[in-house]
């Protein structure tokens, strides 16, 4: 009840901060976190497209990767999939840490998020890799090149961040269920 009252009364930015700080105590919290993160992806994608409009080679990729490192780190921390959060959960739930780690499938959880890690994961996402490469090539096409690069940048960023968010949220769900002793079918 207190959580719902605070959620109604707080301004949006404070409400999100409260939500991301809350532990994953039920499925509803996990889903609300996912929705809040998802709502920000379109704005980050617009930012990515705007940077792609600057006719400087490789600037867009550098900015996108730097932004993604920050955002994916927020996903991992927000869903409690970093090592210290999982260790605290294991102790409080009375479940061995190794059992919680065993249900995690994302290559992003439990790792330090950096450009190299993201590039490895993106390389496995064929469509995103092609979009990012096409964006760099398109900027050299006279007249329409910048517009095409902006559209490709928006699409690549949106799809990549959505994929990362879904992957991390699914892991959070599995860890939550494991911490309660529920067997997951996912």
UniProtKB/TrEMBL annotation:
Pfam families: IIGP. GO terms for cellular component: membrane. One of its GO terms (molecular function) is GTP binding. It comes from the Eukaryota. InterPro entries: Immunity-related_GTPase-like (IPR007743), IRG (IPR051515). PANTHER family: INTERFERON-INDUCIBLE GTPASE, INTERFERON-INDUCIBLE GTPASE 5. This is Interferon-inducible GTPase 5-like. The lineage of its organism: Eukaryota, Metazoa, Chordata, Craniata, Vertebrata. The gene is LOC103376390.
């Amino acid at each position: 009840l207190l959580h719902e009252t605070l959620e109604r009364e707080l301004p949006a930015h404070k409400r999100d901060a409260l939500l991301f700080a809350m532990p994953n105590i039920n499925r509803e919290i996990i889903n609300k976190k996912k929705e809040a993160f998802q709502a920000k992806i379109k704005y980050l994608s617009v930012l990515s497209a705007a940077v792609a409009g600057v006719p400087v080679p490789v600037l867009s990729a550098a900015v996108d990767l730097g932004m993604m490192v920050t955002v994916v780190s927020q996903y991992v921390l927000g869903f409690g999939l970093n090592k210290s959060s999982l260790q605290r959960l294991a102790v409080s739930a009375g479940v061995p840490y190794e059992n919680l780690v065993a249900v995690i499938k994302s290559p992003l959880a439990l790792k330090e998020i950096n450009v190299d890690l993201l590039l490895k994961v993106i390389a496995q996402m064929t469509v995103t890799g092609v979009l990012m490469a096409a964006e760099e090539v398109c900027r050299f096409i006279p007249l329409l090149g910048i517009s095409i690069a902006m559209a490709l940048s928006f699409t690549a960023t949106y799809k990549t961040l959505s994929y990362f968010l879904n992957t991390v949220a699914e892991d959070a769900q599995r860890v939550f269920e494991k911490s309660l002793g529920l067997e997951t079918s996912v």
